[in-house]
Amino acid sequence: MKRATGLVTVAAALLAGAAFAGETAPQDVKFEDLAVNASLSGGAGDPVEGANVFKSRKLGNCLACHANSDMKSELFHGTVGPAMDGAGDRWEPAQLRAIVADAKEVFGEQTVMPGFYSVNVGENVREDLIGKTILSAQQVEDVVAYLATLKE
Ligand code: HEC
Q1: Which atom of ligand 1 is nearest to the CA of 84?
Q2: Cβ atoms of residues 59 and 135 within 8 Å
């Protein structure tokens, strides 16, 4: 029995490795015409997970800057950026992916929106954060899938 459990653990580790195999590293993301065409994780996003990334302070914290009528039950909606209502009408998924991955590539250097899948986050970054992105490739795909559902 012990041996079987070991094999299951090995199989799970291999599967977890495979999940990362199709992933694009932040420095390899290709921006073309203000869009990123390929999925960053190599797979599809989950809009339910994406809604969580959007509102969670520990993840995207997007609600801190963007109001969103789809999340009426949340108390605080920021107004630094435009409201997210109809974002899925205004932008193609490839454009939403570019905005979330690195807003500077779309709106220019002066934007206050963070680059959520960028290692280009400026100087004086805490040592333990160098090379890390705010969101994982899959979390970006999830939030993009969620934004695509916001239609008016
Ligand atoms: C610090 C504030 C801030 C945060 C946090 C932030 N944004 Fe933004 N965002 C902006 C601003 C400001 C703009 C408008 C572009 C500009 O002028 O820089 C914008 C623009 C956008 C747009 C295009 C707006 C439109 O509909 O025309 C989308 C989509 C977007 N943000 C999604 C997100 C998502 C998703 C997150 C979380 C993962 C997020 N933003 C987090 C400030 C922010």
Answers
A1: 26
A2: yes
pLDDT band at 17 (very low <50, low <70, confident <90, very high): very low
Mapped onto helix, strand or coil, the DSSP state of residue 32 is strand
How far does residue 59's CA lie from ligand 1's centre (Å)?
14
Write the class of the CATH domain 24-147.
mainly alpha
Look up residue 139 and give its amino acid: Q
Question: Where do the domains of the chain lie?
Answer: 24-147
Cβ atoms of 88 and 150 within 8 Å: the answer is yes
Pairwise CA distance, residues 23 & 40, whole Å: 6
CA-CA-CA-CA torsion sign (122, 126, 128, 134): negative
- List, for residues 28-45, the tens digit of each pLDDT value: 999 999 999 999 999 999
